[in-house]
Amino acid sequence: MDLDAVDPDDRLDELDRRLVCALQIDGRAETGRIAEVLGVSARTVTRRLARLLGSGTVTVVLMPDVRDRAVGALLLRVRVLRGKVETVAHALAARPDVPFVDIMLGGSEVSAVVLTDAGSRDRLLYGQLPATGAVLETDVHAVLHAFADAGHWHSGHLAPEQVAALAPPAPTTVAPATDALDRSLLDLLGRDARRSHASLAAASGAPESTVRRRLHRLAAGGLLRTHATVDPRLLGMAVDANLWLDVPPGRLVEVGTALAGHPQVHGVLATSGPTGLMATVFCEDHAALFRFSTEVLGPLGVARAETAIVARAVKRAGVRLVDPVRR
Question: Where would I find the HTH asnC-type domain in this sequence (predicted)?
Answer without folding.
Answer: 12-52, 179-218
